[in-house]
Amino acid sequence: xxxxxxxxxxxxxxxxxxxxxxxxxxxxxxxxxxxxxxxxxxxxxxxxxxxxxxxxxxxxxxxxxxxxxxxxxxxxxxxxxxxxxxxxxxxxxxxxxxxxxxxxxxxxxxxxxxxxxxxxxxxxxxxxxxxxxxxx
Length: 136
Description:
The protein is of the alpha/beta class. It has helices spanning 9-16, 21-36, 65-76, 106-119; strands at residues 40-41, 47-49, 52-56, 81-85, 123-124. The longest helix has 16 residues, at 21-36.
């Protein structure tokens, strides 16, 4: 269950002092998926094997959700189970940073989910009531 926090190296450098984070995350996710594939669950919904990616939405688009979703859909699998998390809460030094000193808005959550669906991801965590529109 890897996290994919930032798509942009600049945001990763600024917020976590880790400019190589995006590339390292992509490498790790490729390898995890190579080893175990997409998430498989049993009849009770219990995970048996596979990758489940967590992605925390950040204020002002700093997590780069369209890039993360596009990478997962394009290079990993559109069948990857992705939990797009909306629970960002600033604390500590984040309170002094204007870019991240607030929770995300409902609009930012909807934009992130729309970006994931537009990228082609088909297994988004549905606990928030978001549904992917399917064209017939």
